[in-house]
Amino acid sequence: MRITAMETFLLQSPLERPFGWSQGWTDHRATGLLKITTDAGLVGWGEGISGPAAAILRDYFAPHLLGQDPMQRNALWHRMYHTLYNANLAGGFGGSALSAVDIALWDIAGQALGRPIYELLGGQVRDRVAVYATGLYYTEGEFPHRLLEEARGYVAAGFRGMKTKVGGLSLAEDVRRVAAIREAIGPDVHLMVDANQAYNPATAIRIGQMLAPYDILWFEEPVAAQDVDGYLQVKAAVPMAIAGGEGLRTRFDFRDFLARRALDIAQPDVINVGGITELRNVALMANAFGVQVNAHVWGSPVMIAATLHVMATVPPCPTARQPLPYQQEPVMEFDRTPSIIRETVCREPIQQQDGFVPVPDGPGLGIQVDEEAVRRLCVAHQRIP
């Protein structure tokens, strides 16, 4: 079996109501999908291939992929990484391109063998993964009524945890929002906050201490993504767990964060970190250091399914007689903000029930991508060769 062609699709869908976070505001959702075709008729799908990442696929990776056996994904991963290494391109869009190809190759391998990806990774530890609701962004006129209605809706849907944004308003205003959400959802639902790198360490410490009365489970990306010492400074001064890592690429970016205990919770993202191969590597590294892995997820069912397969194989941290989500068991982000992409590019959208999502058990990713929907939402397309 040989790789014969690759296609990239940049997808966009409008938002009825724009929303914001600490670093920006958007009126649409977007992602990039990759389709790899083989001479055996098998097709694999990956995600993360948009903008400059598509150019990296064409200019750097295509010569090393076309005509090659897709089953040799380990050798192909390292060959692609090597093409980026000397020019220091493995971060940013280079890591995204690498991730997309890797996911698609695992999808093909699973289909070729008639097995789900989690079996190729050694078998599942769990057949469903606990998820928390991500939403509660900033929107115009949302506070308090619409914001609190959204939060109560997540509780009614069975979620045992949810995450909101901080860093886009003054400290006092953000604390007011968090306090109102806590009152609305009660004391028994986990509540997390995400600053998206909004603060310097001193300010992050200040708001972390202000939020302490509201029983915040974790404080996500309090400072700049690469600032290991900043993370350590905040971690030493606030009572909640510190989380981060969604934008880090490969195990090498995670090395110092794990070795220096700068994170309580690592959040690798399968379409950033280097695909299924490297998400698995980072998860096991983190487990060895006693760091919980709660994967970051923000995109289409392709990345959701890829993440579920890896999270199905990650052991509890630490082992326990009865490991529980949010304590020893991993929990996974489950985006609830509006997204036509997320709801339509898979023939059967991935759903949660009572705060858990079942792991797909079909061959490869175990999902059926609706290529008609992909092409309908596509705003830029590239085929190689």
UniProtKB/TrEMBL annotation:
UniProt xrefs under Gene3D superfamilies: Enolase-like C-terminal domain, Enolase-like, N-terminal domain
InterPro entries: Enolase-like_C_sf (IPR036849), Enolase-like_N (IPR029017), Enolase_C-like (IPR029065), Mandel_Rmase/mucon_lact_enz_CS (IPR018110), Mandelate_racemase_C (IPR013342), Mandelate_racemase_N_dom (IPR013341), RHMD-like (IPR046945)
Pfam families, A to Z: MR_MLE_C, MR_MLE_N
GO molecular function, one term: magnesium ion binding
CDD domains: MR_like
SUPFAM superfamilies: Enolase C-terminal domain-like, Enolase N-terminal domain-like
Superkingdom as given in the UniProt entry: Bacteria
This protein's UniProt keywords: Magnesium, Metal-binding
Cofactor: Mg(2+)
Protein name in UniProt: Mandelate racemase/muconate lactonizing enzyme family protein
